[in-house]
Design brief:
Order of helices and strands: HHHHEHHHHHEEEHHHHEHEEEEEEEHEHH
Largest sheet: 8 strands, antiparallel
GO molecular function: peptidase activity
EC number: 3.4.22.-
InterPro entries: EpsH-like, Exo/Archaeosortase_dom, Exosortase, Exosortase-1, Methanolan_biosynth_EpsI
Pfam families: DUF3485 (PF11984), Exosortase_EpsH (PF09721)
Enzyme class: hydrolase
Shape: flat
Helix content: 40-55%
Number of helices: 17
């Protein structure tokens, strides 16, 4: 037998890649591998959410979708010659800076967005602007790898509750709504976080974006389709909640809950998805055979020619990219080492007209500040018998597991019977939140933060202040203050909390005295 007969007849994978693409793709693969290793904690956190959270299970197929989108362009990409490009380091530095801002402030959305954005930035740097333009949509679609959306849950709860009460009353069922709670003859229903519809909305936006790109050419039709892809699942979720309440009136809450999980959870939204596609089907204006890009036109595009004057040698650009990533990594490590000096003990100052009393809530409530270095919980009563509960927490630094106002921390502790009820607004414009437990116990809470000379109730502003201080390598302690009062006959908790706050004579200075930081 001749040995030549044993030689493989199929070309190895490398031979399927045009010679001009081999080294650039190798450098890109090495750069991506290095970035995935350097920023592995962020990718591991994202992967955990994709796998463990039903809200983000759909993200597991996003990498396959991106790969498919790239493969659809493979034939046209053959007309292009990749070239490394110095200006690509600018968006790379931008992605790294976004990651840094999120990393030093424990804002996972920002750090994960930055980690994802590094991959398209590496494509632009190592393959050049023509290739990046040809891959613009697949690269942009990578944003759906970032698990976001939980932030809009309260808004979706409110919208769902309003749709539900409107449909419930229209169907002849007597009902009363307070915040996200709907009281009917069959019982009290809560539009809980799990019923907000956020998981379906996020998945529908990702699907809608893909369909708009693949099935439409007209930007007007794409925009109209995306509006429908957002509005339809929100309205459908309200219909789902109404259906559960309506069925419960005759069949009982237990039956309605089971029906909701089986039919609405698995079948109803599949029908909604089919409805969306059915409505849009007749308006599809892109042929299946039509290529997604015109590689020859991109290769000849005159507007891209001036950009290529800043082309770089491949390995030099590769080294510069890695050096930039390592520099930001070192910057982050330095910021995480910051610790502000705080006292060994904290004590709440006196408040004129209010006396310290033993804490005795009608129903157990204890806000959480598990990551705080110092904390104290107390109660104050005024001459009218009104009681305000106070939590003061002091942090030497902000980081993962020790950040003020983190999820599950603060006035609404997770894993308890307390639920968010509605927003409140004091006479002086200060926002708060009304909480409810077991349908019978209610209280109002305001949350305040103090960093340096800034005092406010915005968790977003707190993140921004923390970002600024950590990026500038400035160590400042962070204080969190929660003021809360129970809803009792003859007592308006919103007014009670506001009166206590004014009695401090300046909340920021009062918090400073509690922490003895000045």
């Amino acid at each position: 037998m001749r040995l030549e007969a044993l030689a493989p007849t199929r070309a190895p994978l490398v031979d399927l890649i045009a010679p001009a693409w081999r080294l650039p793709l190798l450098r890109l693969a090495l750069a991506w591998a290095a970035l995935l290793i350097l920023f592995a904690p962020d990718w591991a956190a994202m992967a955990s959410q994709w796998w463990d959270s039903s809200t983000y299970n759909h993200v597991l197929v996003v990498p396959a979708i991106i790969a498919w989108l790239v493969l659809q362009r493979a034939d046209e990409l053959a007309y292009l010659s990749p070239r490394a490009w110095w200006p690509g380091l600018v968006p790379m530095a931008g992605a790294l800076f976004v990651w840094l801002l999120g990393d030093v402030s424990s804002l996972a959305t920002a750090s994960q967005l930055g980690a994802v954005a590094m991959l398209p930035a590496a494509v632009l740097t190592l393959l050049g602007p023509r290739v990046a333009w040809a891959l613009a949509f697949p690269l942009a679609y990578s944003v759906f790898l970032v698990p976001v959306g939980e932030e809009i849950v309260p808004m979706l709860q409110t919208i769902t509750a309003k749709i539900t009460i409107a449909l419930t009353e229209a169907s002849g069922v007597p009902a009363h709504i307070e915040g996200v709670f709907i009281d009917t003859p069959a019982g009290l229903f809560e539009v809980a976080e799990a019923c907000s519809g956020v998981k379906f909305l996020i998945a529908m936006i990702a699907l809608g974006t893909l369909v708009a790109h693949v099935c439409f050419r007209s930007w007007t039709r794409r925009a109209a389709f995306m509006v429908l892809a957002v509005a339809l699942p929100i309205f459908a979720n309200g219909v789902r909640a109404w259906g559960t309440i309506y069925i419960a009136q005759s069949q009982g809450i237990a039956f309605a809950a089971g029906f909701d999980h089986v039919f609405y959870g698995w079948i109803f939204f599949a029908l909604v998805m089919a409805m969306l596609m059915g409505i849009a089907w007749r308006f599809f204006d892109r042929s299946v055979e039509e290529p997604f890009i015109d590689g020859q036109a991109i290769a000849r595009a005159p507007w891209l020619a001036p950009l290529e004057r800043w082309s770089a040698t491949g390995w030099t650009a590769f080294a510069a990219l890695l050096a930039l990533a390592l520099a930001f990594h070192a910057w982050s490590a330095r910021a995480h080492a910051l610790e502000a000096a705080i006292p060994d003990e904290v004590a709440l100052p006196d408040v004129p007209g209010w006396d310290r009393v033993a804490t005795a809530p009608a129903y157990p409530w204890e806000p959480r500040a598990a990551g705080a270095d110092r904390r104290v919980l107390a109660s104050y009563r005024d001459g009218e018998g009104r009681v305000v509960d106070v939590l003061y927490a002091l942090y030497a630094g902000q980081g993962q597991g020790r950040e003020a106002g983190a999820y599950g921390e603060g006035a609404l502790p997770s894993g308890t019977e307390w639920r968010w009820h509605s927003s409140t607004l004091a006479a002086d414009g200060v926002a708060g939140e009304r909480l409810q437990a077991l349908g019978a116990h209610r209280r109002v809470a305001e949350t305040w933060y103090r960093v340096g000379d800034w005092t406010g109730g915005s968790a977003i502003r707190l993140k921004l202040v923390t970002m600024r201080d950590n990026v500038l390598l400035t160590a400042e302690p962070t204080a969190m203050l929660i003021l809360s009062a129970e809803e009792r006959p003859g007592v308006d908790p919103v007014v009670a909390v506001a009166d206590f706050r004014r009695a401090t004579g300046g909340l920021g200075e009062w918090m400073d005295r509690a922490g003895s930081s000045r």
